[in-house]
Amino acid sequence: MTEPLSLDVRGVEYAYPDGHVALRGVDLSIGRGERVALLGPNGAGKTTLVLHLNGILTAGGGTVAVGGLTVDRDRGTLAEIRRRVGIVFQDPDDQLFLPTVGEDVAFGPANLGLRGAELTARVDEALAAVGMSEHRDRAPHHLSFGQRRRVAVATVLSMRPEILVLDEPSSNLDPAARRELAEILRSLPVTLLMVTHDLPYALELCDRSVILDEGRIVADAPTRELLTDSELLARHRLELPYGFAVTR
Amino acid sequence: MGAGHAHVLHLDRDTPLHRLPPEVKIAAMVSATVVVVITPREALWAFAGYAVLVAILAAIGRVPPGWLAKRSLVEVPFVLLAVALPFIAAGEKVTFLGLELSRDGLYGGFNILAKGTLGVLLSLILAATTTTRDLIVGLDRLRCPQIITQIATFMLRYLAVLGGEARRMRIARISRGTTRASCGSCAASPPEWARSSCARSSGASGSTWRWWPADTRGGCPPPGSRSGRPPGASGWLPLPCRWRQQRSRGPR
């Protein structure tokens, strides 16, 4: 029996209540342990797609399956889907709302029903994975932005997700924090989907990239191959930073 | 995270009501409200006529009845008061379905219900057919005091900022397994809102700092409005410098 895909998105369509069509039949499959970058210009539908992965938005058409489990409106299924899909949002301040780092990291597993020593072990494990164990009792708003982003990663790692989805993980990070986060992400034994405009970061972390534009996947190839196709990048309003060139 | 594509109250349509200048709609809405309020409560035929007019307006603006009904729920506390009045008011009693009801209370309840409902529906139709920005422009064109339009502009801005923040935090919480019924949700809400308010008050101050230089006197500068002039050099100074500068100039 073949192992189910970490993520299997088929023909997903979505229109906002005002009629704006954000997704027009998205197909995307990600195998277990893969690291994939989701690239695309502003307004391409990247965030809308991400919100379909854990059932925050319900597709107007098509299906989303995570580790073989199809997203639907059933409460039990949704709870399991949200455990399997760990979304790290762009602004860590949206994700950190409890008085201490430890409580924030415990929030997800506590919602899954974990208590006592098991919960403590989960928190320790997640904080250790992002190198933030010593900040467990600090208030999130006293941390630097890079530290807050690492804690935000820990808040979803503590739920032991099947797939980690990061929305613009490198935004607003200084070079050192960016490198530290890259090292952490590379060390995590999870499937990774990284939504980003930061093409060098995609190249650094993801072997494969897909480009989403106008609600459709328009390219799916090894990251290096995509980034050397300057015409393709230009067509979809993607650009490498000044002075940066990728060779095959 | 994207902001989505839905406005809270405005319905994006192309209808004669949407195209009407905002100042005309605001003036008409205020006048209609005044007329409704001063209508004697015994003039039932007049209220029926107003209801027909509101229905026609909603049809012209293509505002669905269900949309209006859902948002009219804001009126529920007043409806409860209106329903209670015939039972609790004093004065002459009438018998209806075996119930002893106050005549004054019946009229009073109807008065609250009819006038409140018409006011809410008119406001909703105005909101559905006019963007918030156009409302400010309309107020400005009606020579509303600038301090009012300025406060309204910032209030709308802050509401949008706070609403966006609350929405993103809610999504982040749901993504980590919170359901409305779960204790986690209740436990997280007060500090979340406290944190959000603190964070956003500083964010809002940031907006104030960024917006202030756009117009020395703080008015919104919509195209064609009386305050739509380019700022002078002093307009680009940071606020404390300008405050000192204005103090040194004295009142104008």
TrEMBL record, chain A:
> From which residue to which does the signal peptide run?
none
* Main location, first listed in the record: membrane
* Ranges of residues in domain ABC transporter: 7-239
Q: Which GO terms describe its molecular function?
A: ATP binding; ATP hydrolysis activity; ATPase-coupled transmembrane transporter activity
Compartment(s): Cell membrane
Pfam families linked to this entry: ABC_tran
Q: Which GO terms describe its biological process?
A: cobalt ion transport
Q: Does the keyword Endoplasmic reticulum apply?
A: no
Keywords linked to the UniProt accession? ATP-binding, Cell membrane, Membrane, Nucleotide-binding, Translocase, Transport
Give the top-rank taxon of the lineage listed in the UniProt record for this protein. Bacteria
**Which InterPro entries does the record associate with it?**
AAA+_ATPase, ABC_transporter-like_ATP-bd, ABC_transporter-like_CS, ABC_transpr_CbiO/EcfA_su, Co_trans_ATP-bd, ECF_ABC_transporter_ATP-bd, P-loop_NTPase
Record's GO cellular component terms: ATP-binding cassette (ABC) transporter complex
- Topology class, membrane: Peripheral membrane protein
Q: Could you tell me which SUPFAM superfamilies the record lists for this protein?
A: P-loop containing nucleoside triphosphate hydrolases
What is the stated purpose of this protein? Answer: Part of an ABC transporter complex. Responsible for energy coupling to the transport system.
User: PANTHER family under this entry?
Assistant: ENERGY-COUPLING FACTOR TRANSPORTER ATP-BINDING PROTEIN ECFA1, HEAVY METAL TRANSPORTER
Q: Which family does it belong to?
A: Belongs to the ABC transporter superfamily.
NCBIfam families, per database record: cbiO
Q: What is the protein's given name? A: ABC transporter ATP-binding protein
The species this protein was found in: Phytohabitans flavus
From TrEMBL, chain B:
- Source organism phylogeny: Bacteria, Bacillati, Actinomycetota, Actinomycetes, Micromonosporales
Ranges of Low complexity composition bias in the record = 225-235
Membrane-traversing stretches: 45-64, 76-99, 106-127
Q: What is its main location?
A: membrane
Instruction: Say which domain of life the source belongs to.
Output: Bacteria
Q: What is this protein called?
A: Uncharacterized protein
Kindly give the InterPro entries that the UniProt entry links to this protein: ABC/ECF_trnsptr_transmembrane (IPR003339), ECF_transporter_component (IPR051611)
Instruction: State the membrane topology.
Output: Multi-pass membrane protein
